[in-house]
Design the sequence.
């Protein structure tokens, strides 16, 4: 009987201790929940305080993205233009049509407007150019062969590459039209690769 009473007291003590332990856990959990709610309120207050700064940064980012898109469009338009620019120094007696008509430039006087458009920053009046001015010569994307031309000569032209040693590029790009690189004919039209 003593054993039964002892066991009953022992079991009761365990149950009481377990209930107290659970109660302590529940109180502690409520305290933790209250602490978390307090931190959440503080975080929300800080977010509300910082929101105007976040909005200002977003506005700056939007304006920078707009500027980036504008600059990209400008870059693309410039990149769509000539991939090569040569230079020509104006000599006494030169005028735009004369320069454009030179075999080393465009071999075509009517292309004086190309020179004018490329040099509008220095040419106020297309009828007035002065010795010593350096004009930019936009490169050709294609070339019509004239009598006396050969590939190295074409490559040496300012409007092509300005470098005779680059003639193989013209040959490689036009193998369908050029059977022998030593034989080209007037009025043939060649693509001038710019990559």
Sequence:
């Amino acid at each position: 009987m003593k054993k039964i009473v002892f066991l009953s007291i022992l079991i009761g003590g365990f149950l009481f201790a377990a209930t107290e332990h659970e109660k302590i856990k529940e109180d502690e959990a409520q305290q933790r929940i209250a602490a978390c709610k307090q931190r959440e309120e503080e975080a929300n207050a800080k977010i509300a305080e910082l929101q105007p700064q976040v909005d200002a940064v977003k506005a700056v980012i939007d304006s920078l993205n707009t500027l980036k898109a504008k600059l990209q469009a400008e870059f693309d338009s410039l990149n769509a233009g000539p991939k090569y620019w040569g230079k020509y120094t104006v000599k006494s007696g030169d005028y735009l049509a004369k320069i454009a008509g030179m075999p080393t430039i465009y071999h075509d006087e009517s292309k004086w407007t190309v020179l004018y458009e490329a040099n509008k920053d220095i040419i106020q009046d297309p009828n007035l150019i002065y010795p010593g001015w350096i004009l930019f010569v936009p490169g050709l994307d294609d070339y019509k062969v004239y009598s006396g031309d050969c590939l190295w000569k074409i490559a040496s032209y300012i409007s092509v590459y300005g470098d005779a040693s680059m003639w193989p590029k013209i040959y490689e790009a036009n193998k369908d039209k050029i059977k022998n690189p030593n034989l080209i004919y007037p009025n043939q039209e060649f693509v001038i690769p710019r990559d």
